[in-house]
Write a structure and sequence with these properties.
Helix content is about 30%, strand content about 15%. By secondary structure, the protein is an alpha/beta fold.
Length: about 425
């Protein structure tokens, strides 16, 4: 029975500082389960090498002799070794082309792959995730971006007080600033040109809830999508109120056949029978927070063609898109890439269809940081580790040499096993078509 576990350093992004297992849980697993931890040294990790050494782990330059390795983001091809078990966010279940070489390499080396994204409960809900922290950081960044964009347009607003999420020492420090901005707006109002200020959220899961939690620190009133369409027709609106709108699937799409009504399960199983109707809401939004799951079976919610049409009609109300889902060329078609924490925002010009990093220039500002939870590395790592903790011993001690049917793992983990000894497991054989 194996009891040796390693945690690798993160090298995909310069600013990736998260870790899947925090020192407190390392110490407990060593004492209670007899695990032997090897932590690959990292100068940037939010928890220091010294903290892990104090917890009883061995700090190592490499993990050559470690059979089970945990990480966060994708792993370089030359890092994988024959027959080892790797646990990380693999980003392969949609057949993502940029990660197929990685998956093929793992198959060639007969590796085991457990994907955090696929650790789900009996109802299909993810049980280990960073989603809430992506929403928290994404909303902080979008409000920060909004302040910069308004400054470019000539408006000095209280949003300029807000910093990018990673520049705060803690989440509570960020909340404090945003509360102060909210108090200022309540007492002094906003420029009439910005009224009504509206923030739309697509989706209602962990990501959206995190984003709404931050927005809730401002003077917010929630209205329905239907009320949003009527908002501009009201004669007088308060200048010290911000309107929040949450869009569900039935607001975002409609049946292609006008004779049919929207049915949620029908949409999930037969998305080709539906088309986007979201464009009717976009002209009424100031900030759009994209927080919903999407893959290429579903209609886009913001297309490049529509943005060109919108800007052709004059400078639109829509100022910032916070694309937390960060699907490249996805539901927000102008999100051409996930951005880095150190260079997080760009302007998309709908006329030239070009991109310019920063907050200046003609077009729409897109905030699309690919690793948003790493802007809140301490809090997000602690929450993630707490969710993962109860599965760690089972993952490390499992006999991966047995057949898939006989492999003893907790069911949520077994459902997340994409590769077993280099072979796609039954639930993931569809990925073969993308290889």
């Amino acid at each position: 029975m194996n009891k040796i576990i390693g945690v690798r350093y993160e090298d995909k992004y310069v600013m990736e500082r998260r870790i899947p297992i925090v020192p407190g849980h390392v110490e407990k697993l060593i004492k209670d389960k007899g695990l032997e931890f090897y932590i690959q040294t990292s100068p940037k990790r939010v928890f220091s090498d010294e903290a892990y050494a104090k917890a009883g782990a061995t700090i190592a330059k490499n993990l050559v002799n470690v059979p089970v390795i945990f990480g966060i983001k994708e792993i370089p091809l030359d890092y994988f070794e024959t027959g080892k078990t790797y646990v990380f966010f693999a980003h392969v279940i949609k057949g993502q082309s940029y990660n197929m070489p990685m998956l093929k390499k793992m198959m060639e080396l007969e590796c085991n792959l457990i994907d955090y994204e696929r650790i789900i409960d009996d109802l299909g809900r993810r049980v280990i995730f960073f989603g809430r922290f992506a929403g928290l950081a994404g909303m902080i960044n979008s409000l920060w971006s909004f302040g910069l964009r308004l400054k470019y347009y000539g408006f000095e607003t209280p949003f300029l007080k807000i910093k990018q999420a990673y520049k705060y020492n803690s989440l509570e420090d960020a909340r404090k600033d945003i509360r102060e901005v909210g108090c200022y707006i309540s007492e002094n109002g906003l420029p009439p040109e910005l009224i009504p200020l509206t923030i739309g959220f697509t989706g209602y899961g962990n990501v959206s809830n995190g984003a709404q939690e931050i927005a809730g620190l401002l003077p917010i009133m929630e209205i329905s999508p239907e009320e949003l369409l009527e908002l501009n027709s009201r004669k007088k609106l308060p200048d010290n109120l911000i309107y929040k709108i949450v869009f569900k699937e039935e607001h975002i799409v409609e049946p292609v056949d006008s004779g049919h009504e929207f049915e949620l399960l029908d949409y999930y199983y037969y998305p080709e029978k539906y088309q986007s109707q979201f464009e009717k809401y976009i002209p009424n939004l100031t900030i759009l927070m994209n927080c919903m799951y999407w893959d290429d079976r579903y209609p886009r919610i913001v297309t490049k063609d529509y943005l060109e049409q919108l800007f052709n009609a004059g400078k639109p109300k829509l100022t910032v898109i916070g694309d937390i889902t960060c699907d490249q060329d996805g539901s927000i078609e102008c999100t051409h890439k996930g951005t880095e924490i150190e260079d997080p925002i760009f302007i998309y010009n709908p006329f030239t269809r070009d991109y310019k990093m920063g907050y200046e220039g003609e077009g729409i500002l897109d905030m699309a940081v690919d690793i948003l939870p790493s802007e809140l590395p301490r809090e997000s790592s602690i929450a993630f580790s707490e969710a993962l903790y109860k599965y760690i011993y089972s993952i490390v001690s499992a006999n991966y040499g047995s057949t898939f049917d006989q492999l003893e793992l907790p069911m949520p983990i077994k459902k997340a096993l994409i590769l077993h000894n280099g072979e796609l497991t039954p639930d993931y054989r569809y990925i073969e078509q993308y290889l």
